Amino acid sequence: MEIVETPLRDVKLVRPRMHGDDRGWFTEVFNAERFAAVGLPAEFAQDNQSFSRRGVLRGLHYQLGQPQGKLVRVLSGHIWDVAVDVRRDSPQFGQWAGFDLRPLNEAGQLELLWIPEGYAHGFVVVSETAEVLYKTTRGYYPAGERSILWDDPQLAIAWPLDKLGGAAPDLSAKDLKGSPFATAEVY
Questions:
Q1: What sections of the sequence does the record tag as coiled-coil (predicted)?
Q2: φ, ψ of residue 34 in degrees (nearest 5)
Q3: Number of domains, the chain
């Protein structure tokens, strides 16, 4: 397994080793011992899967009280995934990074994104449809659920809206009511 550093020091790209031949390939997507050996969680509480069409933007979500770390994997399609550091005491507070995620990256490698607790998370679907699977370190905690506005000017996230064919992103009612970053309750 290869761990790739990103502009956000605690967010990592995880590339499991793939074993292939003329029949296809096999990989261990998650192995508790190997994850623990490289400082990633060895236990997850919940698996979530979403299916969305082009232009659906989910996020920027996080939980207070029972924060979740997320291991994100794209099963089909193409998303642009974003992590935002919302830990007030972090030197990277308010910084974000975006990642093109597909089932296999351009080099043909399986690639997952590790987003630890303390980060808001969101993504936009830039392919016709996308299926996303993510493991979380804790279960859903409705009382702690929070959302930051996806287009907050203070964060200035460079969403790839040009890949949506001129359409505005499609957001849930909850995400339309997200908080501005400056007034959001954070860690």
A1: none
A2: -70, -40
A3: 1
